[in-house]
Amino acid sequence: MKAFRDETVERLSRASGLSPEAVDRLLVVAEADRGDFALPCFVPAKERKAPPPKVAAEIAAKAEAGGRVAQITAAGPYVNVRLDRARLAQETVEAARAAGPAWGHGSEGAGKTVVVDYSSPNVAKPLAFHHLRSTMIGNSLVRLYRARGWRTVGVNHLGDWGTGFGKLLLAVELWGHGPITAQDPRGLNAMYVRVNAEIAKDPTLEDRARAWFKRLEDGDEVARDLWRRCVDLSMREFQDVYDRLGVTFDHVTGESFYEDRMPGVVAELKGKGLLEESEGALVVRVDRPDDEKEVPPCLIVKSDGATLYATRDLAAAEYRRVTFHFDRALYVVDVGQGLHFEQLKRVLLRAGHPWADAMRHVPFGVLLIGGTRAKTRTGQVVLLADVLDEAVERVEGVIREKNPELADAAEVAKAVGVGAVVFSDLKNRRINDIQLDLESVLSFEGKTGPYVMYSHARACSILRKHGAALPAFPQGGGALLSDAGEQALVRAVARFPERVARAVETDEPSEVATHLLDLCEAFHAYHARGSRDPALRVLTEDATVRAARLHLVDAVRVTLAAGLSLLGMAAPEQM
RNA sequence: GUCCCCGUAGCUCAGCUGGACAGAGCAUCGGUUUCCUAAACCGAAGGUCGGCAGUUCGAAUCUGCCCGGGGACACCA
């Protein structure tokens, strides 16, 4: 598609006298029935002090069609461009099939490194449904960046340190370590919920929890031992869910990993004269004279001498910079932490680290339950593992009903069930808050993961039915893929790579998800019309037509498989 | 109080680096299975793009104010 756009720009540039850059800025993608591209002539008309329709007519008259451009016509104030669709069909199908799983890949990230911090759950709590967001958005971003040539480093920054642990150790002091010895992660969580409830009733317990964390930080052996066992227990449970989701990391480093680096961070800030005492604590002021808003100081050391997560994030940022030399660092963390990352970046900049500008908070909306934010502390959670179980079970039911012959039904149900949950999270823009609505997460009709996977399975089914290897693309076959249904597929396949690039630019996996839905819609409509008219089937009588259509279906299959993979989903060949 | 995000059909959303008539899915109603998987397709109905100004040849898209919802604002992460 890029070659087609470039050529369009070149021809319009020559005809209009505008620079290629100017044409490229103005050129829009037209709706299919109007052509392929359109050039609105309002801006050039203004410069020439002539009416837009006149300018459009002049440009259209001067422009020469040819090559990849079939037709250039004026329509009111617009110049419409129609591409050589036979050529577009052929080049697109050939490019997609040649690329295979690498369709959509690009090289603009070559030589650059991105560190992606995602999932990063707190230890001693189970993975709840809302953890899906950071986990799957981050997982997808890693795949997307890698596809566009970046070297990627996926980091799981476990919350295994902090006052939360003090609370847990306090709980053990109060009620014993039963859940730990019993290897019972849910019991551990119940204890965490209970201790938070107790603290809410009796605020003096808060201080005792802080004291426990201080003991941990000071290296107290009892505290250390309990802590280690809690972390191990949680990690085993996390890994189980990550395996089911197909999520992996390059570096799993808890906040505790930075424990011995924290004094260095504090010393650095002190050495640069940035630390100030405030109400017994040490802070760095990060407001600037030209600020239009208030940016409160960043708290580095608490009044009892213990550190905070800002301290650890500073240590982590410096560590990642030194270790991975990143050109970009993403933090896939909910939108509520915007201020924290703003402060973090400002502290680093004040400390003379210009690379901090490469840090990007990639925010996402929170999960709402009954209109209010889901909180693990109050125990008001839906476990992620339970949702996955439920989804897989429902899919098994659907398979029994619709495809009882399916050989590896259990495996397929796992893939489709998990895919349904994953896709429900990735299909919308990150920033939207999401209401917990299991019915829509577990529905398999309409714009869902199973719908996309089903499209892929149907494409595979047609190719399987054909049996033999695909014949060569027929001479002049592009012209056989010329009707509206086929052209819609060609366009969707052709535009896939630019959507992937855009997903990376905007850190937005939903760019890919919505594009796949568009493609699926076109594919199902194309597929269904064969029910009415055998001549419109892919596997039709005419061998030449059949060959051209098979190539197109294979290009669709390649695109769906590549897209699903970028979203971190499986693409079963049957379901 | 200050700041951030969101506000498009009954519900969930797409469209938002401004461009030709605002699109889907779910739900509702009506069709399609001797036919490449009906997890599908086709059709009907459904919208003051939260409101008011402004910028512009042109605004769902940009700016300001207001309203509504969510969130952040130091010793939690």
Shape estimate: globular
- Please provide the count of β strands: 15
CATH class of the largest domain: Alpha Beta
Spatial separation of the terminal alpha carbons? 32 Å
Computed CA radius of gyration, to the nearest angstrom: 28 Å
Give the full name of the CATH homologous superfamily of the largest domain.
HUPs
CATH 2nd-level architecture of the largest domain = 3-Layer(aba) Sandwich
Helices, by number, come to 21
Structural class: alpha/beta
Which spans have pLDDT < 50 for at least 5 consecutive residues? none
* Percent range for β-strand residues: 5-15%
User: What is the percent of helical residues?
Assistant: 40-55%
- Stated plainly, the CATH topology of the largest domain is called Rossmann fold
Q: Main β-sheet: number of strands, strand sense, barrel status?
A: 5 strands, parallel
Number of domains: 3
Largest sheet strand order: 7-6-5-11-12
Rounded mean pLDDT score: 92
Protein described:
The structure is a single chain. The protein has three domains: 82 residues, Gyrase A, domain 2, CATH 3.30.1360.70; 256 residues, 3-Layer(aba) Sandwich (Rossmann fold); 183 residues, Isoleucyl-tRNA Synthetase, Domain 1 (Orthogonal Bundle). Helices cover 54% and strands 11% of the residues. It contains 21 helices and 15 strands. The chain has a five-stranded parallel β-sheet, with helices on both faces. Helix 6 links the parallel strand 5 and strand 6. Helix 7 packs across helix 10, helix 10 packs across helix 11 and helix 19 runs parallel beside helix 21. The chain binds one RNA strand of 77 nucleotides through helix 3, helix 7, strand 10, helix 13 and helix 14.
